[in-house]
Each structure stands twice: as structure tokens, then as C-alpha cells.
Amino acid sequence: MKHILMSLALVFSVSAFADIDEGSAVNIQPKAERVEASRTCFNELQKLGCGHPKDDADHFRTCMSEVYTSLDSGCQTIMKRLYGK
Prior knowledge:
Layout: H1 2-28, H2 32-47, H3 57-67, H4 73-83
Helix pairs in contact: 2-4
């Protein structure tokens, strides 16, 4: 009887951890709206002459600092989260 109870406890504890891990993985994945908003902001920065950070990160950061106030509030929030501006 003791072995059965220990086995059940082990099964339930493993399934509880699986639920936690599954739930946290869902929270980590970006939502499609956030991805699209971020993409839109990077496109706007490219139009303003900043390029893309993968091409020249230093130029991108410098340019972004210069044009930051011209971005809409949504893009400002995204860039602040990504680059700490």
C-alpha cells in the first residue's frame, strides 16, 4: 500500500510540473500582435534612415536615439523594452 501511495504521489507531482512548464512556455512565446507591432517599428526606423540592428548595431542605436521622439508611443514602448532607451 505504501508503494502505491508513493507511486501516485510521484505521478501527480510530475504532472503538476508538466502543467507549470507548459503554462510558462505559453507565456514566453510572443503574441502575433506584438511581433507585428515590433516589425512595424523596425520598418519605420528603416524609413527614417536607421537601417536594421543586424546590419550595423551602433548606427542603429545612435540613429534610434536621434529619432526616438518622432516615433509613436507604441514604438517608443517597444524600443524602450528592447534597447533600454
